[in-house]
Design goal:
mainly alpha, elongated
């Protein structure tokens, strides 16, 4: 009896038409299909973000406060080692706020990229057992990184208020494109690297090295005025400013580092920073689209590779 039921089920399944999953043809049509599939699984995406946050702070006494430990530790190290011992703080007013603004922006980017790169491999069990839009795994890393960013951002705002340095100026609007630039490029890289890391496992370690280099290539613990003074606005400075994360950090500094706006003796950010940010934002939208299309092309063999 049981055998006949199993045979009947096998025949029923065999009669079903095959339906392709995971790879959508064409850039325009494929993009629409992918985005619709991701939107349809938005509930699952929310659950994955909550699961990642619970796993991160499971059995910890401080909970979400741990999201502040790393940037605060970095702040203390850079403040004393670079600011006080090397004397950088003497030429950068309110050096602590300056550094924390940069670290807040940088931590958002690096958490998205680092977690997104390993997101597919970390969720290999789900990838191999059930079909769902695989983009939701790197996107869940984006969601958890945004939560950590929110906690750090609240601390940043509180610090500027306590020190009487809240930037009630027109420069505050620069924070919007600066934040979106960091978010877009981090998301695009998370999707792209998350897919490629399935096939090239050394990529995860290469990303760690690249993030270290990128950190020092961005004006986080030093002011852009040093770069401008050294390069004198030449072609190398223009190449330096092609880095969208550099532009994002500079934009956040312009928005929240009030002392930088008052310091008329130094060029703390490019005079055309707003235009550069909006151009980088437009390019970033295209960049995310291209990264998603590459991801869509390579995701078909994820289950076999994992």
């Amino acid at each position: 009896m049981a055998g006949s039921i199993s045979s009947e089920r096998a025949r029923s399944l065999a009669a079903q038409p095959l339906e392709a999953f995971g790879r959508s043809e064409g850039f325009v049509r494929g993009t629409t299909q992918s985005y619709r599939a991701i939107w349809a699984q938005r509930g699952l995406l929310s659950l994955l973000v909550k699961r990642e946050l619970r796993a991160r702070y499971k059995n910890s006494a401080l909970g979400i406060l741990w999201s502040l430990v790393r940037p605060l530790a970095q702040l203390l190290i850079y403040y004393f080692a670079i600011g006080q011992i090397l004397g950088v703080a003497r030429s950068i007013p309110n050096f602590a706020i300056f550094v924390f603004v940069g670290l807040t922006a940088w931590t958002l980017f690096t958490e998205i990229v680092s977690s997104g790169t390993s997101s597919i491999i970390s969720n290999s069990g789900l990838v191999k057992k059930v079909y769902l839009p695989r983009e939701i795994f790197p996107l869940s890393s984006v969601g958890s990184a945004l939560f950590s960013f929110l906690v750090q951002f609240v601390i940043l705002i509180g610090a500027t208020l306590v020190l009487g340095q809240f930037p009630w100026t027109a420069n505050l609007a620069t924070a919007v494109p600066a934040f979106l630039v960091i978010l877009l490029y981090g998301t695009g890289l998370a999707i792209l690297l998350g897919g490629l890391n399935v096939y090239f496992r050394d990529l995860e370690h290469l990303v760690e090295v690249a993030l270290v280099v990128l950190f020092w290539a961005s004006p986080i613990v030093y002011s852009f005025s040093y770069v401008h003074k050294f390069l004198q606005g030449g072609i190398i400075e223009q190449i330096y400013l092609l880095n969208p994360i550099t532009l994002g950090v500079l934009g956040m500094q312009k928005a929240f580092w009030l002392s930088g706006s008052r310091d008329s003796t130094a060029l703390n950010w490019p005079t055309d920073i707003d235009l550069r940010l909006w151009i980088a934002l437009a390019v970033g939208i295209v960049f995310v689209w291209l990264c998603q299309r590459v991801f869509s092309r390579v995701q078909g063999d994820f289950a076999q590779e994992l």
